[in-house]
Amino acid sequence: MKLSVLDQSIWLAGASEDAAIRDTLDMAVHCEALGYHRFWVSEHHSLPTIVGTAPEILLAAMAARTQRIRLGSAGVMLPHYAALKVAEQFRVLEALAPGRIDLGVGRAPGADMRTALALNPNAHAAAESFPEQIQDLQAWLAGQPHRGIVAHPRAPAPSPEAPWARIPTVWVLGSSDYGARLAAHLGLPYAFAYFFMDGQGVEQALDLYRRLYRPSPRHPRPQATICVWALAADTDEEARFHALSRERWRLDRMHGRLGPLQPPDQIAQRGFTPEEWPTVDALRRKAFVGSAATVAEQLRRLADALALDELVINTWAYDPAVRRRSYALLAQAFEISK
Question: Is the dihedral of CA 46, 102, 24, 322 positive or negative?
Answer without folding.
Answer: positive
